[in-house]
Amino acid sequence: MPKNGFKSITVNERVYDRFYQIFFDQKEKLAMKGVNSFAGYVTHCLEEMMKKDETFSKFTPKIEKISVDDKRVILNDIIKNRIVEVQFDQNKLSCMFCNFDDCKHVGFCESMPEVIEIQGMMQFPKKRRTKK
Ligand SMILES: [Zn+2]
Q1: Do residues 68 and 52 both lie within one domain?
Q2: Strand order of the sheet with strand 63-68?
Q3: Ligand 1: distance of its center to the CA of 100 in Å?
Q4: 86-128 pLDDT per residue, tens
Q5: Is there a domain that residue 126 lies in?
Q6: Domain count, the chain
Q7: Percent above pLDDT 90 for the chain
Q8: Are residues 74 and 114 in the same domain?
Q9: Residue 42 lies in domain
Q10: Are residues 93 and 112 located together in one domain of the fold?
Q11: Distance from the CA of 102 to the center of ligand 1, in angstroms?
């Protein structure tokens, strides 16, 4: 049983041997990076892989807000390296970049407090009209 705060996994012997061989060959180099055990080396490999995966993953939208007014939201799509305009069409949002109203840019806008506020203001006159 691994000690508290640790978990163990089982891997194929061939995979284990390959990793162990690399660890063994680079022991001194790895020690300089603060990696002193085989378990530490495998942890180090997994952490490096996660860092790379985060940077390149298509499934992690990397978007930032540039500006908001009552007609449009301007976003920076960091992954595509493009400026994206999302317009308010009546009370619906539509993305001028994707030509969709359900893309990740619209999704990003829908969770912005400013957009929720603007949509609330747009809905208000409609509600008044239906009450009459
Ligand atoms: Zn879009």
Answers
A1: no
A2: 63-68, 72-77, 82-89, 92-95
A3: 6
A4: 998 877 899 999 998 889 899 999 888 888 888 787 766 555 5
A5: yes
A6: 2
A7: 46
A8: yes
A9: 13-56
A10: yes
A11: 8
